Amino acid sequence: MPSATLPRFDLKGWDRKDIAHPYPVYRRYRETAPVHRGATEAGKPDTFYVFSYAEAVRVLSGRRFGRDARTASGGAGAQSGPVPAEYRALRAIVEDWLVFLDPPRHTELRSLLSAEFSPAVVTGLRPRITRIAHELLRQLGRNGEADLVEGFAAPFPILVISELLGIPAEHRERLRANAVALQEASTTRSRSGTGGYARAEAAAAEFARYFRREVRRRRGDERTDLLTLLVRARDEGAPLSVDGIVSTCVHLLTAGHETTTNFLAKAVLALRAHPQVLDELRGAPELTPGAVEELLRYDPPVQAVTRWAYEDTRLGGREVPRGSRVVALLGSANRDPERFPRPDVLDVRRAADRHLGFGLGIHYCLGATLARAEAEIGLRALLDGVPGLGRGDRPVDCAYADDLVFHGPTRLVLDMSG
Ligand code: HEM
Q1: How close is the Cα of 190 to the center of ligand 1, in Å?
Q2: 85: β partners
Q3: Cα(first)–Cα(last) distance of the chain, in Å?
Q4: Which alpha helices (DSSP H) does 219-241 contain, by range?
Q5: Which of the listed residues 21, 49, 362, 391 has the most CB atoms within 10 Å of its CB?
Q6: Residue with the nearest Cα to atom 39 of ligand 1?
Q7: What tens-digit pLDDT sequence spans the chain (418 residues)?
Q8: What is the number of the ligand 1 atom nearest to the C-alpha of 330?
Q9: ipTM of this complex > 0.95?
Q10: Rounded to 10 degrees, what is the CA torsion of 212, 216, 217, 220?
Q11: Relative to the CA of 374, which ligand 1 atom is closest?
């Protein structure tokens, strides 16, 4: 169906209200057509936005779409890799990020890492994750106003990944600031001209110095943290350079950080807007795993993932030429009524586990099991430990980041008391 009444879709230039609640905009586009062409920019490849669940699944599974703009364009014109050439430290640091790789390197590296994110490893981590959550809540206190993002949702995942990697406690805050600066370079924020790449370049250089030193320290070490295991695997012949280890550590820090922060902050907002669901969850801990899946469907922390078309193809009735950029809008796919009946209703008892909140296909979130454990433990700690969590009549100060890819509030001030 033609979409003559709608402007070309663009992730840039949204106002704050639409960013905080993009679903009505998604619905308007999705009801018109499953795939829309984006705004054209001189010298840039065509962009197509995918709104329906079925077409998003097609983009994320199979080999017609991949991660490399140069492969897609046959090597001509397109920027090589995800970062402009002048940002050398940043380019080096993202070089071995799983999320930017195609097979065979993707398969090789993913199989090296996946054992460390298995359900058994995550089960072993649960007591430490629980301790971290309770310690943060204790520091936050139960009285007066507090920013849940700054005091809980942001430090929580960084402390967990630092624990996994074996990063000493005193270095964690510095690494968090660097992880935030790096993330900005890959988001709609930097593309709206806030100098994200320059800050990310400085953060990448500092990360490289830090992790190279940590790799040297771990040679012949008996520790069992993930960083030591990667150093040992390399020494035993695994296809991993020192820079590859540095790149992987930084990838895990950034991939598992803002995503989990945004999940927790948006889960609180969704539950405040649905006080009956919040009350039901408080009294029924066994509903927590299902609630986590439904919250990931209802308002996913990653709203959009990008691929490149490796061949001329058709998608949602449109011709998509080889070399085009294709953006799957996970937040829209998760609200597609063809897949999830009554998609705008938050229903923690529905079977929401086929949501696309963790992506799909070969790039399906490597940390999904860990993320689910963090989400359950973090949410439970908040439900049980913050009496004022659901008090909709109390003032809340909430501000969303100017970003539709990594999507969530940067500030969420609540009255903690009951
Ligand atoms: C990939 C979401 C937590 C590590 C992804 C992707 C999504 C996602 C949507 C797919 C990206 C794409 O297809 O382009 C989330 C959400 C999280 C979360 C919503 C929290 C609620 C974590 C954690 C870690 C992690 C805790 C690890 C510490 C990764 C990695 C990839 C990835 C390494 C790349 C996998 C690959 O390309 O093979 N995540 N993630 N994530 N995630 Fe997560």
Answers
A1: 20
A2: none
A3: 52
A4: 226-235
A5: 49
A6: 365
A7: 445 588 899 888 788 889 999 999 999 999 999 999 998 877 788 999 999 999 999 999 989 999 988 888 876 655 556 677 888 899 889 888 999 999 999 999 999 999 889 999 999 999 999 999 999 999 998 778 899 999 999 999 999 999 999 998 889 888 888 888 887 776 555 444 546 788 889 999 999 999 999 999 998 888 889 999 999 999 999 999 999 999 999 999 999 999 999 999 999 999 999 999 999 999 999 999 999 999 999 999 999 999 999 999 999 999 999 999 999 999 999 999 999 999 999 999 998 889 999 999 999 999 999 999 999 999 999 999 998 888 766 667 898 888 889 899 999 998 887 6
A8: 9
A9: yes
A10: 140
A11: 26
Ranges of H-type helices in 141-240: 148, 155-165, 172-185, 188-191, 196-218, 226-235
At 242, the amino acid letter reads: V
Tally of CB atoms within 10 A around 399: 13
Distances (CA, A) of 194 to 80, 186, 189, 398, 402: 23, 12, 7, 21, 10
Ligand 1 pocket test, pick from 65, 109, 259, 306 with the greatest ligand atom count within 8 Å of Cβ, gives: 259
d(CA 121, CA 270): 30
